[in-house]
Amino acid sequence: MGLSMTEAFSKSRQQAEVAFGNVQSQFFSKNNAQEELKSEKQAREAKTFRLREARLAKEQAERTSATAALIAKRAKAR
User: Residue 52: pLDDT above 70?
Assistant: First the structure.
């Protein structure tokens, strides 16, 4: 006759395990991709923060310098 019950179960089980393995691989691939995107987003936000802080510090230094130059100019005029 055909396959015994044990052989049929084994083949069916093997197919199920392969299918489960494929789903599991897709799940882990998706998780890894999400983690990479999250990491890239955090790195981009950190860089943006550092650049903003540097720009604000530069603008503050320029304002301080301009104020000091104006005060010095006014002092000479007296």
Answer: yes
Cα angle for residues 41, 42, 46 (degrees, 5° grid)? 120
pLDDT digits (tens, 9 = 90+) for 18-41: 998 888 888 888 889 999 999 999
**Three-state SS across the chain?**
CCCCHHHHHHHHHHHHHHHHHHHHHHHHHHHHHHHHHHHHHHHHHHHHHHHHHHHHHHHHHHHHHHHHHHHHHHHHHC
Largest CA distance in the chain: 117
Quick one: tokens of 19? 């299918």
3 contacts 11 by C-beta, under 8 angstroms: yes
Cα–Cα distance, 6 to 72 (Å, whole number): 97
For tokens 């790195």, what's the residue? 43
